[in-house]
Amino acid sequence: MTASRLASAVSASPVHSSGTASGRGGTAAALMFGTAFVVNLAVSIVAPMLPRHLEERRLLPSGPHGGVLQGLLFSIAPMTTLVVTPLGELLNAKYGYRIVCAFGIVAFAVATASFGSAKLIVAAFFEDAGSSTTSQNPRLELAMLFACRLVAAGGGTLATLSSMALALKANPESKGTLMGASETAIGVGFSVGPSMGAAFFTAGGFCAPFAAVAALGLGLLPLLALARGSNALMPSDGTQHHSADFGAIMSAERRSPWSSLPAVSIATLAALGMFGFGYLDPTLANFEETLLNANVAGVGVMFSCAAFPYALLGIVVGAIVDSRPSMGPPMVCFGGIFNGLSLAALPPLVPFMATWSWQISMLLLCGCATAAGMVPAVPQISMILEREATAAGQVPPTDDSVLSFTYMAFTCGEMLGPLFASLMVRTFGFTGATRCVGAALVGMSIITAVVLSLFGHCGRAQAQE
């Protein structure tokens, strides 16, 4: 079968049809936005009160092992996401998006509420009544915190991936806008999580913020129920395919994202972008405290300067990519370059850089550049793989496959950035380590631009297509 006939058959098949899903597009998009917001809210909400809770309950051993365990309790969420992400595609194909999404939401909500209630659960079954605030079974309670954090992260990952696939299938013409909305939801969730956690913790104790997040998670189920009734919202629903080419589609080889050098280069650049963003989490506070004598509130402003532009520009960048797909490659590459330059310019080279205005300006630029480089990644990789599959007479990869591939890259960067940051700063100092990260981003951006140009995915060749 020729490549053009294969492409026509794919576009005519129910897998790629969006007509029946048009009425559900808004609901699916709202579900995706809400899921991304709530899941990432839960990831960041622990920041202001978990260390204090662990200390009050005396759950950690003394010495360096206690610090390692505390770090693992924070980083187990992205670790779990990295492991569960490849499973999402398989589960969606076997059980359907809505079933996997519902299971993920319920598992997330139950595990999140159990995380906040761990001390009450352990006390009810294993401790004497009227015991002190110190845990009598610190190992058991700590193990329960780890287990709940792991299950919540796994359920949240499944819910996020399946809800995003629902939204993409219901709105196939708006991939960039949807990815921008998703990144906005993620950024807002991460930004407001610590503040919300501190407020609820002050008002109602350790259980309160997690009970609130669990309730928000369960509140997504009505949105999921409203998405029922559309065959286009399911990966396989038993629909009879009458296209004469459907058998040829199913027997043809499906294009793998790992077989495309341009797709791998964009994913690698995205991973480095998330690495740079995550690198600042454990290192920026000490640096700004030393440089500017910044207090906790000042450091919070610094983090917001990077997080809010990233969150607010997501939808704008996505809409630009949807309306002008040829802008995708330049935005990815120049976003990476300016992200690297802004990070490299954080450590002062001259006295005027050691000021609040310069530091805030560079962090604002970092947030904007990260949005420009990250948001177009999924639609750009999807477009590249569709072109390459058509040229090679193959079936394009599914949205699930593209999402799994790209979000594995995002999660690798998000996980490795904080893990390696402290080691890099101890070895090279903040100045040397930050400029190394910036140089790596600039170098990978240039490599990605060269690869995309050589394979005809940017510039004049793409405009002609």
Q: State the share of residues found in helices, binned by percent.
A: over 70%
Shape: globular
Q: How many beta-strand segments?
A: 0
Average pLDDT figure: 81
Labels describing this entry:
single chain, 465 residues, mainly alpha, 0% strand, globular
Structural features, described:
76% of the residues lie in helices and 0% in strands. It is globular, with a radius of gyration of 23 Å. It has helices at residues 3-12, 25-44, 50-57, 64-95, 97-116, 118-126, 138-170, 175-204, 207-218, 221-226, 246-251, 261-279, 284-292, 296-323, 328-344, 356-374, 377-392, 399-454, 460-464. The chain is built from 19 helices and no strands. Helix 1 packs across helix 17 and helix 4 packs antiparallel against helix 5 (97-116). The chain is mainly α.
Topology, element by element:
Layout: H1 3-12, H2 25-44, H3 50-57, H4 64-95, H5 97-116, H6 118-126, H7 138-170, H8 175-204, H9 207-218, H10 221-226, H11 246-251, H12 261-279, H13 284-292, H14 296-323, H15 328-344, H16 356-374, H17 377-392, H18 399-454, H19 460-464
